[in-house]
Amino acid sequence: MPARSLFQSLRYFQDRRLLTVFCFGIASGFPWVMIGSAMTGWLKDEGLSRSSIGLFGLIFVAYSINFLWSPLADRLKIPLLTAKLGLRRSWIFTTQLFICLCALQLSTLDVTNQLSLMALFGLCLAVSGATQDIAIDAYRIDILSQGEDHSNELMAAGSAMATAGWWTGYAGLGSIPFILVSSPNWQWSEVFMVLALMMAALSVTALVVNEPASQREQALNQIQQDYLSVLPNYRRQSMGILLLLPLIMLTIVYANIDYPGWPEFIDGQYQFGIASVAVVVMITLFARQLSKLNQAVGTVKVNTGEPQSLVILANNNNTDIIARLTAWLLATLVAPIQEFFQRNGVRLALSILMFIFLFKLGEAYLGRMSIVFYREVGFSNEDIAYYSKLINWGTTIVFSLIGSVFTIRYGILKGLFIGGIAMSASNLLFSVMAVMGPVKWLFALTVFVDGFTSAWGSVAFVALLSVLCNKSFTASQYALMASLGTFGRVMLGSYSGIVVDWLDGNWALFFVLTAMMVIPSLLFLYSIRKPLKALIEQNESTPDKCKAS
């Protein structure tokens, strides 16, 4: 495909839907202020250690496992609200209300004596924020893919606006708590009351925008009916699925919350290996049961020649509650993942997921310890507010737009390569800052370059995930892919403080290591560039790919 002109690329930003995407991006980034930089600053001011602060970041685990409940956002209706707002907007508005309530509760706590409660409500806030992200990302893809022949280019423009909005919420509005707390008249508890009120103001967007049109409900009901047509005759498979599916999900959650109650006689270093083997075995058994059901569904279609909706009507009276529950779970939780692997092929699908996991690993380690690093180098809360937050905010908005124009003109893959290389190189400036100390001009330069490279890479990254989704499973599939990227930022990034301690506080070496972490993802991207490019071009040539498979 020939490169588009600059004028052609800029025309995509005339779409009014992008303003909605920007506003929702602000709301998406804002919870990270509460449980990220603001909470880190609060804990640091209360005297907690680097390791404790890093491990406290495990509450972000909600963002890495939100794919487990993301299919519910494609299927479940919020009582009363869905009828008035629609599926997407009702989920967004509900989660935003929960975020407000959690922030208000945090404002009443004493960190020294109620640290456990603080972690609990922080986790509730993270779950609400992660669920909000599911609904917002699905809304963006749904609203931008309606009736478009050039969905890839519009997705790139939408990714830029979402990225700019996210950083407006995280860095722009995120500077406010540090500005407030730098005054002797403000305490962190009072700051969190302000943050709750700001989140309430952001929730107004969900009440005034339009709900995207969708045939999702019909498609999912059809899949459920397909399974119902055979499940009464496959009771053994039904029971196996009902047993294995929750076990798989519980094991993943158990591994992500740091293996509570792990037997002492088993060495802790084997935790991840044992959990991984258990999940692989259960998924294998589950896949065998599912394969038999899929074969049976295919046989019914061939033998009857009837649409499955007619077949199930004939057998409706014979179905029991086990069959109905199994069919609902398969259509809601399993079908999105199954469709992703069937459409892309198992090998390419796994390769895509591996790249997503690796791409922002270095950024994960850098981001989690950045506030602690700034404070230990010698910068004040006010310095952090003006340099780290405000400069990063402005830089990200400008360069996310520039990066999106480049991505529209030259393609998503080139944007990923350039963004990844730039992100790796920019981390080295933090090493220079660690050596030179609290030099404000260097702080400003480092934040500027880091914001530029992160924005460029994020636009192409979000655009890639967006174009790979099937519209019938937007929330499920985007969350599955995005959660893998978040997994590195949350689970592995949470140990960044331990790594710094292991290096005896050698921040310069730490940031060199984070720069090297980007290299494997770029090598992996290069190895799958051809099939991935073909997949992206196929999406461009078949804009109706979002119909149910």
TrEMBL record:
The keyword Transmembrane helix applies. Keywords: Membrane, Transmembrane, Transmembrane helix, Transport. Coiled coil: none annotated. InterPro entries: AmpG_permease/AT-1, MFS, MFS_trans_sf. GO terms for molecular function: transmembrane transporter activity. It is a multi-pass membrane protein. Pfam families: MFS_1 (PF07690). It is found in: Membrane. The chain crosses the membrane at residues 21-42, 48-69, 90-109, 115-136, 157-179, 191-209, 239-257, 269-287, 348-366, 386-408, 415-435, 441-466, 478-500, 506-526. GO terms for cellular component: membrane. NCBIfam families: 2A0125. This is MFS transporter permease.
